[in-house]
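Follow-up to my post from last week.
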Amino acid sequence: MNGQAGQRRDTRPPSKRPYHHGNLRAELIEASFDVLAEHGLSEFSVAKAARAVGVSTASPYRHFADRDHLLAAVAAQAALELADRIGIDVASAGSDPGERFAVTAGTYVRYVADRGAGVNVIFSSPLTRLDQTELSDAGRQLISLLLDLAEHAGNAPRTQQALLLLERHIVTAHGYVTLYRDGFFASRNATVETIAERATQASRALLRGGTVAMLTPHV
Amino acid sequence: MNGQAGQRRDTRPPSKRPYHHGNLRAELIEASFDVLAEHGLSEFSVAKAARAVGVSTASPYRHFADRDHLLAAVAAQAALELADRIGIDVASAGSDPGERFAVTAGTYVRYVADRGAGVNVIFSSPLTRLDQTELSDAGRQLISLLLDLAEHAGNAPRTQQALLLLERHIVTAHGYVTLYRDGFFASRNATVETIAERATQASRALLRGGTVAMLTPHV
DNA sequence: GTCTATAAATAGATAGAC
DNA sequence: GTCTATCTATTTATAGAC
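User reply:
Got it. Predicted complex:
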């Protein structure tokens, strides 16, 4: 058994690669979402994304300067996709402003569970420092969309209070999906849907609890 | 200024290591906290912990079977330390049950910012699967302590509602400190203290918002 | 633009000297 | 129990052929 007998097939592990044609840049971004969804940001690598597309590990560097620039493109697209999904879910949420806001917590949980990229990627320090206008613009639009919903949801549409409400809303939804992916809810047999629903209920509770003025803890 | 003058120290990069004496196991755990606090779980490595102590990268394997077993020991100690800090902060929080519960959100934020290990480590899937009784016991005690505070804080001390309140509380505190470490609050000049205070305020809002029965999402 | 090949880091883990 | 040395694997990134 010195070696698998009588086969010349497959003798060249990845040799004679079939040469890739097409829009590699877009395919790498899409494959990166798959890697993020399966492995998470901490185990993301350019090599994994390249293998998922079926190209050599050198090819991505023709389209992205380095790992962070690929991630920045992914993050920008994530912000756009997330805004899209929010728009869809809000449209189905009825007319109550509080409910239109709260359901976006569920949207967020489902999106991050599905695609692996949330505000931790979209607003992560290393990526923000790249000064990629595509990413910062998409991030701003996402926050603007959510802030608008928060302003209508809060009884007092003051920007300061809406910002605080939005902060708690994002933090809670992100905490839910992050801990879900880390296995924190593994004891109870939790699904993405149940976690999304619980995040939405937490957002409703936050809204009911109201926002005390931010500037008066020590003033 | 070719280099700090007059030193023969450091001439041998890591050669002739001074041979370590003492309680290496405990020192490795302590060094692991430093690594977690500085680099986070995703960049934790046995090699970094070993270098922080000043021993060879092989030495840790005399005390821990593999990377996960070292992390499990760290996680168990984190649960004990966190419970200690919670006891201290609750004792200073006065007599109002809601306030005694809410302040632990700030405790959690400060602890994870300081030590780098929170419920994502203490209850992480790979570590839970090791079936280390030291870790699972410490984790249970931590939850038990917090659940007791939640039961007193909620107007209805039903266990189901207290569990839901506690879940939201942990998720929110964890979301705050996680996103803080990821740079999400970098635009505003946020400190650990301000984030801890905001997490506590969010917990107060959750408590005010109350817990609707889990099984009546549309009632 | 994609390939093959390679260099330099870093990490997990083991073997064997002391 | 700690060391030095080593092996394997993975990744980032570059060089040069096609």
